[in-house]
Amino acid sequence: MYQTEGLTASNVGNTNLYKFDRGYTWFVLIAASLLFIFLLGITVANRQEALSSPGLLGAVVVMLLVAVGIVAYTVRRSKRSLKINDDGVFLQDGRGNEISSIRWVELGRVSERRELGQLALWDKAGTRRVLVDQLFQNFTAIRSRILDEYAKVFTIEPLPIEFRNPYPLNYQSVLMAAIVAFFVWGSWSANRQNASGPSVILAFFAILGLVNLLKLYPGLRGPSVLFDDRLVLRSLFKTREIYKKEVASIDLNDRANQSGTRFSLIALKMGSGEQVKITFAYGSILEMYLTLRAWLAH
Hints:
Layout: E1 10-12, E2 15-19, H1 22-45, H2 47-52, H3 54-78, E3 81-84, E4 88-92, E5 98-103, E6 107-113, E7 118-123, E8 129-133, H4 139-153, E9 161-163, H5 171-192, H6 196-215, E10 224-226, E11 230-234, E12 239-243, E13 247-256, E14 262-270, E15 275-278, H7 285-297
Antiparallel strand pairs: 1-2, 2-3, 3-4, 4-5, 6-7, 7-8, 9-10, 10-11, 11-12, 13-14, 14-15
């Protein structure tokens, strides 16, 4: 696991220049090197079997090519920098040449790409974008500045507002569905072979996976709705009403998975000290955050 480093932005007037996190680059290089050594060692130790099995040798070659491709992509990406000033956002290559840019007067929408850990800044026409990687150092400050500018052009819908996920099919739900299907198949196969013990265990894991899959779709019980005085938040097993007078603050936090990729979530801090978390399952995190922030301030 790597840790992102602190602020390394060069302040020149109102311009901030952000560099790519070198820690992640080294993490990928070391992991790829270990994989290369492992595959090479396995191949050398079993060279007779490898030479007599074209399929095995081909799989090793494919894995090595994938590792080399990931390293090449990471190295190229690590040379990029991000410049933010009062005019807009400018993505640059290692030589300082502009790759893409969005000026604040052109900004129309900001979305989060969870799978790749990026913010996507779109122009008003929706035809041009700038991808801001979360692996730029001090990404929290970058996101905060972008959201401040996005808030100036973001239009809040009239209340009441329903929170629904516009993209219900995502890699996480597909992966969870595949896991559930695997355990169901395993339980069915074990039952056919009269292995009742393994069948029950696999069925238990299938049910557990199904519950986690359904948690990604809280809208199955009806939409969560924001009213003038309260937020009705529905999940798989319960419905909760959160009144505006009970909310002390609304923050945008991050949750990291095992690979270090961060996912945004909204944290409602109640006056009692309790925190209520709203995830991507309810809709666009950034748009819900701006909506709730304006709702609380109104």
